[in-house]
Design a protein that fits this description.
alpha+beta; Jelly Rolls; 14-stranded antiparallel sheet; 17% helix; binds 2-oxoglutaric acid; binds fe (ii) ion; oxidoreductase activity, acting on paired donors, with incorporation or reduction of molecular oxygen
Length: 382
């Protein structure tokens, strides 16, 4: 059964028939027990900043989630693509993503259990032939409207990608390359997407997705947990020289230089008038495969349907509304997480039963919550 554990019918008051994957997700005790036991965050830290966890969910749940993604009509997927353009803070990328679709809400809710109290922004992704993401480090700010109406700036802190790729082979491309793990070689460690596995890492971390060579779609759930404040600097234009140096070093197979980390977070800062400070990072890292060195960050999550409570002043309205701009930087960055249900407080918190959150150890209290974890707060990224 693997670490994911569980099987249809194993739990719940569903005597006489098997529990469906949706029922399993709605069964807070089962879902939280499964996610908590992986202790994703601790595993990431122990592994030095990036970890892969296999057999993440019970097989029938993984199958259910794949069904959700496969049944999303083409028209719902937001294609996002951009060429590398440092002036626009774009990195070269293309893929499709969506935040809202039948059944996806529950799936995303499940992944929020990785860090229950945190604000987050998750999407489903579909990569087709030639889709890819050039090297980047995921640094970005996301503005979040809290229940109170207050708007705060957050920084991506923990990236989580869940792969729904069966029997994926390296030659299909779509390989996640961890450019910061050079123990495996100067061009980084390669993670061939593995069915029902999670790769999680602390942001910032340079990585890339190599171009797909297959007609098979590469499905995943991906997103970030966000922390209030500005936890790192973003590209301002001065990084260009550093970027060039890194590119040169990468070409010569030298180790990338570690960037000094800056703690810039002003917690819970009111940020309504800081549009000028948003933007994507920009700096180069060694390329993976044929991918050129590129800016350090792309905006990531796409899908802008619904839940945008108020148009952001600098929102990009490109051809692919929201999604198109979602991997672009600077002026487009607001759009990146637009439409996200940034469900900060977990059900437990919202319900005042609050035990689930302690990240202190592997064992956490499990709190039974009402079906569908009612009462979860819904914050919105704007
Ligand atoms: O899908 C992956 O393997 C990584 C995706 C990624 O890096 C991103 O969306 O920023
Ligand atoms: Fe990324």
């Amino acid at each position: 059964m693997g670490r994911g554990g569980g099987k249809p019918g194993a739990r719940g008051a569903h005597a006489g028939r098997k529990q469906t994957w949706q029922e399993w997700i709605d069964d807070y005790e089962a879902a939280s027990e499964c996610i908590f036991k992986h202790d994703v965050e601790a595993t990431v830290i122990e592994a030095g900043g990036l970890a892969r966890i296999s057999s993440f969910l019970p097989e029938f749940v993984a199958e259910g989630i794949l069904t959700v993604l496969k049944s999303i009509p083409d028209s719902k997927w937001n294609e996002t693509a951009a060429r590398e353009d440092y002036r626009q803070n774009n990195i070269s990328h293309s893929f499709s993503s969506v935040k809202q679709a039948n059944g996806l809400d529950a799936v995303i809710r499940l992944f929020t259990l990785v860090r229950p109290e945190a604000l987050h922004a998750f999407s489903a992704a579909k990569y087709c032939k030639r889709d890819h993401i050039a090297p980047h480090d995921d640094r970005a700010y996301t503005q979040v409207r809290l229940d109170s109406g207050r708007i705060i700036t957050t920084s991506r802190d923990l990236a989580v990608i869940y792969y729904l790729t069966k029997d994926w082979k390296e030659e299909y491309g779509g390989v996640l390359v961890d450019l910061e793990d050079t123990a495996a070689g100067p061009s980084g460690r390669r993670y061939v997407p593995q069915w029902n596995s999670v790769v999680a890492f602390k942001v910032p971390r340079y990585h890339a997705v190599t171009a797909l060579t297959t007609d098979r779609p590469r499905y995943s759930i991906f997103g970030w947990f966000l922390l209030p404040g500005k936890r790192y600097p973003l590209f301002t234009g001065d990084d260009l020289e550093q970027h060039k140096q890194r590119t040169l070093r990468a070409k010569h197979g030298q180790q990338p230089e570690q960037e000094p980390e800056e703690e810039g977070g002003e917690d819970e800062e009111e940020d309504k008038d800081e549009e000028g400070e948003e933007g994507e990072g920009l700096a180069a890292e060694e390329g993976a495969e044929e991918v050129q060195a590129a800016p350090r960050s792309h905006a990531g999550a796409a899908g802008s349907r619904g839940r945008i409570e108020q148009p952001a002043p600098k929102r990009h309205r490109g051809a692919e509304a929201g999604a198109a701009s979602s991997h672009q930087g600077h002026s487009e960055r607001r759009t990146e997480d637009a439409g996200a249900v940034v469900g900060g407080a977990s059900a437990a918190m919202a319900m005042g039963s609050g035990q689930v959150g302690s990240r202190g150890g592997a064992v956490r209290s499990i709190v039974r919550l009402p079906g569908r974890w009612q009462g979860r707060r819904k914050h919105a990224c704007i």
